[in-house]
Amino acid sequence: MPTLSVYHLIPPAGAANLSFHFGRQGIGLEETGETLASDSFFAALVVQAALNDPRRTADGAPVWVEPFLADQPPLRHSSLLPRIGDLPLLPRPLLPIHLPPTAELAGKQLKKLRYLSPSLFVAVCKGETLPADPISLQQGKIWLSEEDARRLPAPWKQTATESSDAWRARLTATPLWHVEATPHVTLDRLSAASAYYEVGRISFAVGAGLSLLVAFADAQARPSFEHLLTLLGESGLGGKRTNGYGAFAWQHGTALTLDLPSPHKRAVLLSRYIPTPAELPLVRNERSTYQLTRVSGWFLAADGSTYRRQAVMMLTEGAVLVCDERLPGGQILDVRPDASVSHPVYRSGLALAVGLPADSK
Question: What 3 state SS string does the chain have?
Answer without folding.
Answer: CCEEEEEEEECCCCCCCCEECEECCCCCCCCEECCCCHHHHHHHHHHHHHHHCCCECCCCCEHHHHHHHCCCCCEEECCCEEEECCEECEECCCCCCECCCCCCCCHHHHHHCCEECHHHHHHHHHCCECCCCCEEEHHHCEEECHHHHCCCCCCCCCCCCCCHHHHHHHHHHCCCEEEEEEEEEEECCCCCCEEEEEEEEEEECCCEEEEEEEEECCCCHHHHHHHHHHHHHHHCCCCCHHHCCCCCEEEECCCEECCCCCCEEEEEECCCECCCHHHHHHHHCCCCECCEEEECCEEECCCCCEEECCCEEEECCCCEEECCCCCCCCCEEECCCCCCCCCCCEEECCCCEEEEECCCC
